[in-house]
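We give the chain.
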Amino acid sequence: MISKTRIIKELKKIETLYDKASYARNADLRNFYSKLALLEFCGWIEQSIDNITSRIKKKLKKNENIQYVESIIKQTSSFTYDKHFRKTLIKTFGIFNVEQIEKKIDVNKKDQLRISLNNLKKIRDDHAHTYVYGTTAKFWAPSYTVSFFNKVYDGLREFEKQLTKI
C-alpha cells in the first residue's frame, strides 16, 4: 500500500522551514525550501508508482517475468500520466486490464491525477534543470506543492485498489 504519512510529515517540515525563512526575509532559503518540497513530493510520486506497478510481481511465478517487470520499472524515470504511469501499467498488467481498471476509476479522480502529474512534471523539470542563483525562476511555496497532494494520492490509491483485484 502506498503510504502518505511520511511524505506529509516531510512536506510539513519543509513548509515550516520555508515559513521561518520568510519571516527572516531570506529569499535564498525560501527558494531552496520550495525546490526541496517539490523534488521530495515528485520523488514520492515516482516511488509510489513503482510500488503500485510492483504489485504484479506477487502474482508472477516465472523468474523471467519478474525480471521483466523489474526492468520496466527501472526504465521508467518520470511520472506523467499517459507517457509514464499508464504506459508502465500497460507493459506490466496488459492493456486489457488497464482499460478495465480505468473504467472502474472515478473519472474526476483520474482526471485530477492526470492534470496534477502533468503540471507537477513540467514545473519539476523546470526546477530540476535550473540553478537557484542568478535566475528569475518562480518557485512555488511548499504549501502550493502540498495542495496537489490529495489529488495525486487519491488517484494513485484508486489505481492501487483496482490493481489488487486482478
User: Anything to note?
Assistant: The helical segments are 5-23, 27-54, 63-75, 81-93, 95-104, 107-128, 142-146, 149-163. The chain has a mean pLDDT of 90. The chain has eight helices and no strands.
